[in-house]
Amino acid sequence: MGKESTKGPLMPGTLEMLVLKTLTRGPLHGYGIAQYIRQVSDDVLRVEEGSLYPALQRLQIKGWVTSEWDVTGNNRRARYYRLTPLGRKQLAAESAAYNRITEAIARVMNPA
Amino acid sequence: MQKFLEFWRRLLFLRRRGRFDRELEEEMRFHLEMKIEENVAGGMKPEEARYAARRQLGNDTLFREVSREMWGFTSAETLIQDVRYGLRTLLKNPAFTAVAVLTLALGVGANTAIFSVVNAVLLKALPYHDSERLVLVSGAQHSAGPGTLSFPEAQDFAARLTTLEDFAAVQTQSVNLTGGAQPERVRGAFVTANFFEVFNLTPSTGRTFSRGEDQPGAERVVVVNEGFRRRRLNSAPDPAGQKLVLNGEPYSVIGVVPSSFRHPLDPEVEIWMTAQRFPGYAPRRDARYLFGVGHLGPGVTPEQAQAEADAVASQMAQAYPDESAGRGAKVERLEELMVRNIRPILLALFAAVGCILLIACSNLANLMLARGAARQKEFALRAALGAGRWRLVRQLLTETTLLALLGGSLGLLLARWGLDLLLAANPGVLPAGEVRLDAPVLLFTLGASVLTGVLFGLSPAWQLLSIDLHTTLKEGGRTGGEGAGAPRARSVFVVVQVALALVLLVGGSLFIKSFYTLLHVDPGFKPQNLLTLEYRLPRNKYVESSAQWEFHRQVVEQLRGVPGVESAALIRGLPLTGNGGSVRIALPDGEAPPRGQEPQVMFNTATPGYFETMGIPFLNGRAFDDRDRLDAPAVFVVNQTMARRFWPNQDPVGKQVRIVDSDTTGTVVGVVGDAKHMWLSEAQQPQLYNCYSQSPGFFATVVVRTKVEPMGLSQAVREAVWKVDKDQPVWKVRSVESLVAYNVADKRFLMLLMAVFAALALTITSVGLYGIVSYTVGQRTHEIGIRMALGARTGDVLRLVVKQGMRLAAMGVGLGLIASLALTRFIQSLLFGVSATDALTFTGVPALLGVVALLACYIPARRATKVDPLIALRQE
Which residue does chain B place closest to A35, by CA atoms? Predict the structure, then answer.
């Protein structure tokens, strides 16, 4: 149980930032995005993967991400998401803000 | 830009809405399958892998739902849903919906109709520039009503009133227009040269008056309006220079002004002449015939202007004691003057319709509460299935607002019809052309409807918020469960309704009684079978008094010869026409009061047959007769009130009276009965008559007693006058009965509407009372069944149910009585011959309301006694 608590819900907006970051590596389908985030974050950020989909809708409405149907390596239909230039700009802004906050938090948590 | 693109994407989404669900499902299935494969690859058994994958993905139905909602115009879509659901619910209960919509329509309709009148009459500014600063300046004789100013006085005020920005003098009078096929009477105004500047009016053709044209010796010029140009000048494009014969003298047209300009003293004025052309003009200080109009200076209050006018008037009174002693001045805002009489009437009506809307509101709130109780299970179920409380409240408010809007639309329709009826039934009371259902009125209706919806939706919503889910659902088949507060809320609503209805009924009864009293006032004459008309002789044609009298005498003679005419006479100012003046008198026998403070009496001039023709009884002495010629000593007739006031316990016949203003002394020869002059409701004034043959003058009112329907003779009497002079215009040919009707028209208007509103309030309230008692009976069927099974008799049950309803009614009546006592004094000034705390009204109306309430309780109570205890108990 104690371990679970560090895998709690994400801060609002964090998931979207992670999706944007993931997509900088190229177009990816929903399962791919989820898999990548899980692997890279070493299972720490394990959320219900279905919650990815509402986030993807929001990114599309905002115009940060577009999508189209394509075929996967083993010939299955999947919807691929692609970062737009606007999305790239948004990511830059968000990671800058994120860095500022984490640095600030880090300074408070680990004073020199 | 960002927002717009977002909006655009959402719009585009609407096109692929159907595909979206399918695609999202496919996408998530793909995700799930990949996940299962991953799990199997990790060493799980297929069943286990599937289960784990589902868990890792979470509640896919919910995520799909949320994803879809993200694309929607969320609030708008929920609203549409609510509206749809609301409409369906309303259609499922047609009886409820019909009652609710109709109640509302009546409430909103009455309010819209009255508001449109209030809007047109009280709220709209006069159509003049800076109309809120326009004031009327009049002369005043101590406490008497507004009087006129002479030309020199007007000039003094114009020069010395620094609080006014500008000052023009005006008077209106009908003008004889001759030279056409028939002599015609035109409404004319006589104004100082700067009049059009004060009203900032530019002519559409030609020019208006220039400085100095209002001085004696200037050319005779006239400005006409567009309507006159079309009608009389054959739409001449440039009528300047055309000649008109007005009051027997030639005038040159100099300009045309738009017809949209309404003369402030008389909206029907079509031609304007300069002030010195007023018939009988003299540059004397006591030749008074003008009113002043002007704008208050910026930031000046009417009180400041009044103070200055007082000072100027008292300086004038000192400087010219012979002409101006005792005279004052009055400055009043024009807008205020125009609405002074109608405002209290409209406010009373507005308050009444406001009460009706409140009654309708609380009635509906009660209906909704009752229905809310019945729908509690539906709401509890929906809440249990996950609907948020606020979402349900929103749903409920949407429903009531829908009802309100439906009611409002129907109300608007009712208001339209009602307004047409109102205006048609009350000519003269309201400015017909200006009362419209325009944008402000529609806005008012919309606002009133929505507010009503929210107001009567609030109580059931509040009730909804206090539902205890578990209890309600657990109660199973029983419908009895409702919040403990609801019955009390319903009782409060009923009490308030009854109280408001009582206030309206008391008001309505007072107005009815007042009008009834007014209709039974003895005017002092017999208005049936009397026909009247007016004419004014041109001054240059009848210069000598003897010529004037000769004309009048011949008119009376001609009229007597008309078949169907019983008798005919002349009077200067006929009662109830608004014509007539007063004079200051002195009694040479008595002590002379200081100058300027002599007593005033109504003054009129009559021919010998006048009293007989009108049916005014002769009490003492003799009437005027042929002895009273121009060169004979002056004689007077006085009315009973004058006789009593000036010669108490003496015979006035033979006494001397001096008229101060004209300095004529005469002898009283007879006493006649009192007759009302300005208003049927007026307190009787002392009246002094002199004899037409001794004081002929130019203006005359003909009065004819007919043996046939008076208006049937209207053409014959016109022609009788034209036999004397074919160029003499006559006007205002009408029956005296119509004058009586017109005189009480505003009271009649008020009485009718108040009666209708009171009846409306009574109806809605009794329906409400009936509704709540029926509902309670329905709720208590079980209890009543038990009581009857235990041996209660019909009478006991009846008493039980009726008592409950009547307790509420009694509380309402009590509250209403207190409110009425507090409120009716505000309408005292609108009442005639009845006190605002009239004992009969204050006992009769509660009794009436009590009987109606009893009936409204008794009918459902009877039903309660028909309950079969077996069936009632089995219902459990």
Answer: B35
